[in-house]
Amino acid sequence: MSNMLPNNEHPIERVVRVVLGLGLLSLLVVGPVPGWGLVGLIGVVPLATGAIGSCPIYTVLGISTASKET
């Protein structure tokens, strides 16, 4: 399972993704313009990748922002 979802995000990036995801999801409740609710649903993606610590696009491209600890 660790090969499918390797930890490839830096801890600060994870926090930023979670905050961004929550901010976008908040548009569902308090959106300034009707219709922003659909944009708010996009917030699920950064929230999920931040919570898991693995970005599928990073995995496909072979990118990792995680620190190289041994």
Can you offer a commentary on this structure?
- This protein has 70 residues and is mainly α.
- The protein has one domain.
- It is built from four helices and no strands.
- Helix 1 (11-30) runs antiparallel to helix 3.
- The longest helix has 20 residues, at 11-30.
- The two termini are 20 Å apart.
- The model has no long low-confidence stretch (mean pLDDT 85).
Which secondary structure elements does this structure contain, and how are they paired or packed?
Layout lengths: L10 H20 L5 H5 L3 H9 L3 H6 L9
Helix pairs in contact: 1-3
List keywords for this structure.
70 residues, mainly alpha, 0% strand, elongated
Task: Write a compact overview of the structure shown.
This protein has helices spanning 11-30, 36-40, 44-52, 56-61. By secondary structure, it is mainly alpha-helical. The model has no long low-confidence stretch (mean pLDDT 85).
What is the number of strand segments?
0
Gyration radius from CA atoms, angstroms: 14 Å
Termini Cα gap: 20 Å
Question: What percentage of residues falls in helices of 4 or more residues?
Answer: 55-70%
